[in-house]
Amino acid sequence: MAKQDENIKEPTDAQFSIQKVYVKDLSFETPNSPDIFKMEWKPVVDMHMTNEATPIGDDLYDVVLSITLTVKLEEKTAYLVEINQAGIFLIKNIPEDVIERMLATVCANILFPFAREAVSDTVTRGGFPQLLLSPVNFDALYAQQQTKQPDSSTTH
After folding, report:
1. 111-123 confidence digits (pLDDT tens)
2. Which domains does the chain have, with CATH numbers?
3. Do the Cβ atoms of 107 and 87 come closer than 8 Å?
4. What pTM did the predictor assign?
5. CA quadruple 114, 48, 136, 45: dihedral sign
6. What's the per-residue H, E or C state across the chain?
7. How many degrees, rounded to 5, is the angle at CA 135 between CA 63 and CA 76?
């Protein structure tokens, strides 16, 4: 029984910390300017988001939150913004299944405000009204993804 107790890690052994937050890639295009500025501002916003995590060393993970926004007026694209907001995170002495969830939820929650600020600043500098991205519930997205793909986590 004592051997089992030795294998149990105390909660204080678990470590999580942000090592670095950075913009990996940022793109802004206004394919229909300056004519787009003459149109009435009733935008339709289309947003696509992905999140990828890559182990980069002992207990270190590079997480990239990618957001693509296409904003249209009628059928014309007003602007397109793409950002890859990244961070390096230390995750140590935490079970693998918990690490996967942390990379998809906790790390994404940390990166999202940085991406939201960069998008807002870029759009404003491009001459358009400020665009504030609504908060995202990464926990709900992760749970939804797990129900859609229950067996996909077995292939690494």
Report:
1. 999 999 999 999 9
2. 13-133 (3.10.420.10)
3. yes
4. 0.84
5. positive
6. CHHHHHHCCCHHHCEEEEEEEEEEEEEEECCCCCHHHHCCCCCEEEEEEEEEEEEEECCEEEEEEEEEEEEEECCEEEEEEEEEEEEEEEEECCCHHHHHHHHHCHHHHHHHHHHHHHHHHHHHHCCCCCCCCCCCCHHHHHHHHHHHCCCHHHCC
7. 90
